[in-house]
Each structure stands twice: as structure tokens, then as C-alpha cells.
Design brief:
Elements: E1 2-10, E2 27-35, E3 42-49, H1 59-65, H2 70-73, H3 79-88, E4 95-99, H4 103-114, E5 126-128, H5 129-137, H6 145-151, H7 163-179, H8 184-204
Parallel strand pairs: 1-4, 4-5
Antiparallel strand pairs: 1-2, 2-3
């Protein structure tokens, strides 16, 4: 399996009141790095700003947080075009879609639904590296990407909350895990054990 490491920056609504009833998060930037599973060599990368279609006003909050300027957004592409570019880097059953946490896959899936497009990324190919790292380390709480980088004594590339930099940093953690002997098969086994233990604990509570 090859690895497609992805990070999305997306809109959010921060005001306590006035949130539009139908509001949902829209992707405004994608950063992705693909590398070959056998050689671990980088194959390609992708970075684009993405036009918010449904709630462009609310995008300003996220743009400020992610340091995206109005000038950056002049080169932004529509979501369907971004999806086509992403899909070109992914091959079902042969590519892990890797991200730190669950938000990236969820926001992609939701945006596909709202745009009435099929999500090209199969859920079974999704690898939540934050969960994989937590189970591998045997810790109770999911660590941040910054914590994982620090654990490996790695310097972070660029700036946090910029999509391509976050994708590169996620890739750095994944490479260190692979070099240290982590495997996807062991992750699946650990996850099944954790789910079983969690369910047993709930039943006895």
C-alpha cells in the first residue's frame, strides 16, 4: 500500500449566536503528500486553496486562523476540481488515505454529500494516524501532532494550520513509526482489542 497523507483547512463558526441553521464546514485548503509504501520515497504533493461555495462569509474566520489571505483565495479552485485532483492521487485498495484525527475524512465526506458528489476515498482505506499513534504508544488520550513530533525529537516544518506543512509533518511522524516497526496489521489488532475492552467496560459500568 502507498500512503497519501492529507490535511484540510476548513471553515468553522465561532460566534455563540447567529450561526446559520444549515451551516457546515467547507474545505478552503488542501495539502497532500504521497509516498511509495515499499521505498518510502515521496512521489508527489498537492496544495490548493479551495473556494467555499455555500458560506463564503463564514470562511473569513477560518482564513484568519489559517493565515490565508484574500489574495491567496484569488487562485482558489472549486471543490469539484479539488476532488478530482485528490482522486487522481488515490487508488482504492492500494493507497492509505492518512490524516491526523477523524476531522479530515469527515469534512471531505460531508462536502461531497453537500456538493452531490461521490466520495472517491473508501472509508476502509482511511488511516487515522492520531489513533494509530495513541494505540501504538499505549496512552489513554489522543496526542496532538505537535506532541508526536516532539516525542520523536522532530522539528515541525513551516507553520501549524497550513495544509501542506501539516501534511508534511504528519508524514514525518508516520515515517518514524514505520522505521520503528509499526505496522498497519498490528494497529488493526490493537484497535479491535481496544474496542472490545471499551465495550466490556461500558457493559459493567
Amino acid at each position: 500500500m502507498d500512503y497519501l497523507v492529507v490535511d484540510f483547512e476548513f471553515t468553522f463558526y465561532k460566534k455563540p449566536i447567529g450561526r446559520p441553521r444549515t451551516f457546515f464546514s467547507e474545505i478552503i485548503e488542501i495539502g497532500a503528500v504521497k509516498f511509495i509504501g515499499d521505498s518510502l520515497k515521496q512521489k508527489c504533493r498537492l496544495q490548493n486553496f479551495v473556494q467555499p461555495k455555500f458560506f463564503p462569509r463564514q470562511a473569513m474566520y477560518a482564513m484568519e486562523f489559517c493565515m490565508i489571505t484574500p489574495r491567496d483565495m484569488e487562485s482558489a479552485i472549486p471543490f469539484p476540481k479539488m476532488l478530482k485532483k485528490l482522486s487522481a492521487l488515490y487508488e482504492a485498495n492500494k493507497t492509505f488515505f492518512v490524516a491526523w484525527g477523524t476531522s479530515d475524512y469527515n469534512v471531505l465526506d460531508q462536502c461531497c454529500y453537500k456538493h452531490k458528489l461521490s466520495n472517491p476515498i473508501q472509508k476502509k482505506d482511511y488511516l487515522d494516524l492520531a489513533e494509530a499513534y495513541r494505540l501504538w504508544k499505549g496512552v489513554a488520550n489522543t496526542p496532538s501532532l505537535k506532541t508526536a513530533l516532539s516525542d520523536f525529537e522532530l522539528d515541525a516544518d513551516g507553520l501549524a494550520h497550513t495544509a501542506l506543512d501539516d501534511a508534511h509533518n504528519t508524514r514525518k511522524v508516520l515515517l518514524k513509526m514505520l522505521e520503528a516497526g509499526w505496522t498497519y496489521e498490528a494497529y488493526v489488532e490493537a484497535r479491535e482489542e481496544w474496542v472490545a475492552a471499551h465495550l466490556a467496560k461500558k457493559q459493567t459500568a
